[in-house]
Amino acid sequence: MRKLSNTNFYSLKDSEDIFLIHKENKNFIKYKEFVSDIVRSLEYISKYKEDTITVFIEDAYRFIAIITAGFILKKRVNVLNNNSPKYVESIIDNTMVYISDTENSALNLDEVFESKCNDKWFDVLKETIIDENVYVNFYTSGSTGYPKLIEKTLKQFEAEATKIVNQFTENIKDSLFLYTVPHYHSYGFVFAVLVPFMLETKCINNRINYLETVNNFADYEKITIVTTPAFLKRIDKSSLKIKSKWYLFSSTGMLEEKVNDLCKEIFSTDVTEIYGSTEAGAMAYRRRSENQLWTRLSVVKLKVDENGSIECCSGYTGENVWIHVGDVVNMKNGDEFELLGREDSIVKIEGKRISVQQIDRQILMDKRFKDSYTIYCKSDKREYIASFIVMNNKDRNSEDMKKYVIDYLKGYFETVVLPKKIYFVDSIPRSEIGKIDRKALDAIMEGN
């Protein structure tokens, strides 16, 4: 199986085969062009003595070329998950080179990719294979909003991608890969970069933002879409004009059953949900029409601690390394489990145990509400939960609706665990892959 770490890129320097297709499906990038752009990147990155390059590049093709050059030069590659100025400022120091498609970049990427190739780097490629033990580290902020660096090797990511290929080969081989998830998140890196490269199948050069873009690929019989619940929640049947044999991966959060039903109506297939984390990688999957429970991937070992929290060990977490994932589960047998929620979603209010996700699920059972997110809060004087709710009809009186919410929830929960504060918002603040922005929620609370 082909991997970044076992590919001799020199052997591809004259290849006319297609590497990536532009998402408008009007142009494409050949492997020989990709190799030339690696050579251009090597010329510029090699001038820096620092061991680490820290990267945020929106353009997926340029991202792949730059990090591949970094791997060849045995640089540690740190991947940022956003490029907001203060966020970048909090991370970048004099031990690393920042490479981005913004003005703060140490390299001007337009200059790099328009430069002439220095032939000496082709000679280097002739003798060089990427070391699988190079580090490619992803920053993640989870719900805290503060950057956390997850350190992993390319070998670990390729082991995860290999498992995905082996598990789902029949469904995804000979398929065009489209994706809506950013390549600078670990899920996108594995499923939208490494997996298509291993399969030697065609992939687009950048993520799509709208389902309508898929219509550019009417001539493909099989299409795999790597996406998220946040994207699938927004799709509309009228947007899809073409027919294909579809396969859908979704991760970064649980998919609501009604959204899966919508996907079955539009694509005539279930969504394959992937359960995992940046630290642990892909751990389990489910297709709702086959099983409502999550099934572990065969290379993954799972166990629960005394509090019911799941832990994971696999070939891509490191030998005998167990990762505490932070989710509470109900293990049904050695292979299957029910996901109950985050550890921090199950709280005690005045001695009463409650899952804040239960509150959200119940709120969303009422058609007056479009979205909901409930959090646990603690002050010097008390502990309570607060709910952020998006109404379907925003013209309703908010005070009347707050009373309605409380009266409605009283039918399902004890009074002591009901939300003490309710905020009606235009939308729940989430990142581009659907993760909750807790700092934004705190700002809403502070402003009220």
Automatic annotation (TrEMBL):
Gene3D superfamilies: 3.30.300.30, N-terminal domain of ligase-like (3.40.50.12780). Residues 94-293 form the AMP-dependent synthetase/ligase domain. GO terms for molecular function: acid-thiol ligase activity. It holds the Pfam family AMP-binding. This is AMP-binding protein. The lineage of its organism: Bacteria, Pseudomonadati, Spirochaetota, Spirochaetia, Brachyspirales.
